[in-house]
Specification:
By secondary structure, the protein is of the alpha/beta class. The protein has three domains: 170 residues, Rossmann fold, CATH 3.40.50.720; 250 residues, N-(1-d-carboxylethyl)-l-norvaline Dehydrogenase, domain 2 (Orthogonal Bundle), CATH 1.10.1040.10; 33 residues, Single alpha-helices involved in coiled-coils or other helix-helix interfaces, CATH 1.20.5.320. The strands form two sheets. It has a seven-stranded mixed sheet, sandwiched between helices. Helix 8 packs across helix 11, helix 8 packs across helix 12 and helix 9 runs antiparallel to helix 10. The longest helix is centred in the last third of the chain and has 34 residues. The protein is globular and about 80 Å long. The termini are far apart.
């Protein structure tokens, strides 16, 4: 049988870094995959790298679709938004009932809902799958977060499980729920990612500008942290970053990178939907705002010449302070995960996802950007209490938070005195303090709302809704 007559298990549209690597990954696991891209150079690159009969590079869309087993499973790895709409529009005239379209990009869950509804009316199955792990993950095993119909997922389940990262023999992929469940989970994953990256950058800011650690010392600090409670992919790569040499200057690469952080929108989407669902995620919100603020480089340079603050100096024991910072980051990372899982619980109720938070924690343990030893403990917490409203209510994590809170207070206060911005650390502490309070001053806010807008209020001693004609002086 020649290659043009062979039928392939799955088709991939979009042969950029992620798409090409995932095709090669699936082929390594024994599955046959056809690839197509409008950029012919990318098709040729796939053929050259694969060089075996498990991978087929198609010249055009018709040849690509003809090469697939029926019902056909077509996966897209193209940029979110208009490109996804465009590919779906091109595919539709060629597809048949029960064919499957899989969106493996970072699509907004709202778009995934729209695509699911649009395609289901035409008898086409749709899976929205979040994929985390970057280039390396796609090639050697990502975390995969699929949502859609179970029927559609069963068609590709074995392929996904083979390609996914493995932790203790378990694949980091599972069916998460209907419609947009997969892309929603990936969105929250990315929101948590934003938060943790911001927290790590704040520890770096203090270490560099106050404590005076050089790049070698920073490398060693994060390397040591990654051997303990903070063991995680983001702490691991932070350590590696500080030892990377810049070939142009022979200095460290980190010191010539512009301090303007880019973003593709997933963190913002997390904050936006959290606000829509009235779930507080202040650490993630702070991270999104700080990425935005980093983009005002010209204004910040002008402001530095005008707006003066304290000149920070450090006079304590460096080793003791570094140990405190480790506890602070641990505290704040837990707070960030707690916010993310709280949002997932509320979204599951609101959007009828029926998410299994044990399963979510399990598939985040390997391959993905926010993988961490903490996830095993999160699994234990949700197994022990499937209706757990917030991770901070679990005895294991409440003990950790109470143990580390004093250190957080000391450093947040000290950072304020130094004039070093630590909004992520502050937001994490504020979240902890607000969440542990049975009483908050929201009664005053309700009184103000009723005063100026007759918005009414409730009482603590009587059921019902009330309005007062306030004495206006």
């Amino acid at each position: 049988m020649n290659q043009s007559e062979k039928k392939y298990d799955l088709g991939m549209i979009g042969l950029g870094v992620m798409g090409r690597n995932l095709v090669l990954n699936m082929a390594d696991e024994g599955y046959t995959v056809a690839g197509f891209d409008k950029d012919e150079d990318k098709v040729e690159a796939l053929k050259k790298e694969a060089a075996n009969d498990k991978v087929f590079g198609a010249k055009n869309l018709e040849e690509f679709l003809k090469s697939l087993k029926k019902p056909r499973a077509v996966m897209m790895l193209v940029p979110a938004g208009d490109p996804v709409d465009s590919v779906i529009a091109e595919l539709l005239p060629h597809l048949e009932k029960d064919d499957i379209i899989i969106d493996g990009g970072n699509s907004h869950f709202v778009d995934t809902e729209r695509h699911f509804k649009q395609l289901s009316h035409k008898g086409i199955q749709f899976i929205g799958v979040g994929i985390s792990g970057g280039e390396e993950g796609a090639r050697h095993g990502p975390s995969m977060m699929p949502g859609g119909t179970e029927k559609a997922y069963r068609r590709v389940k074995d392929i996904f499980e083979a390609a996914a990262a493995k932790v203790k023999g378990e694949p980091c992929v599972t069916y998460l729920g209907p419609k947009s469940a997969g892309h929603y989970v990936k969105m929250v994953h990315n929101g948590i990612e934003y938060g943790i990256m911001q927290l790590i950058s704040e520890t770096y800011h203090i270490f560099k500008k106050v404590v005076g650690l050089n790049d070698d010392e920073l490398h060693q600090v994060y390397k040591k942290w990654n051997e303990g409670d903070l063991q995680s992919y983001l702490v691991e790569i932070t350590s590696a970053i500080f030892s990377q040499v810049d070939p142009k200057t022979s200095g460290r690469l980190i010191d010539v990178i512009l301090d303007e952080a880019k973003q593709k929108g997933t963190g913002k989407w997390t904050s936006q939907d959290a606000m829509e669902l009235q779930v507080p995620v202040p650490t993630i919100d702070a991270a999104v705002s700080m990425r935005d603020l980093s983009g005002y480089k010209d204004e910040r340079e002008k402001a530095e010449k005008i707006l003066k603050g304290p000149d920070p100096s450090f006079g304590g024991n460096r080793d003791d302070f570094i140990a405190k910072m480790e506890g602070i980051l641990y505290f704040s990372m837990i707070a960030t995960y707690a916010q993310g899982f709280s949002l997932l619980r509320r979204a599951s109720e609101k959007y009828n996802y029926n998410l299994d938070l044990v399963a979510v924690a399990r598939i985040w343990r390997g391959g993905c950007i926010i993988r961490s030893v903490l996830l095993d403990e999160f699994m234990k917490a949700f197994r022990k209490n499937p209706s757990l409203e917030n991770l901070l209510l679990d005895s294991h994590f409440s003990d950790i938070m109470m143990k580390n809170q004093d250190m957080v207070r000391v450093v947040v206060r000290q950072a304020a005195e130094w004039g070093i911005p630590v909004p992520g650390l502050m937001a994490s502490l504020g979240y902890y303090d607000a969440y542990r309070r049975a009483w908050l001053p929201a009664n005053l806010i309700q009184a103000q709302r009723d005063y100026f807008g007759s918005h009414t209020y409730e009482r603590i001693d009587e059921k019902g809704t009330f309005h007062t004609q306030w004495n206006k002086e």
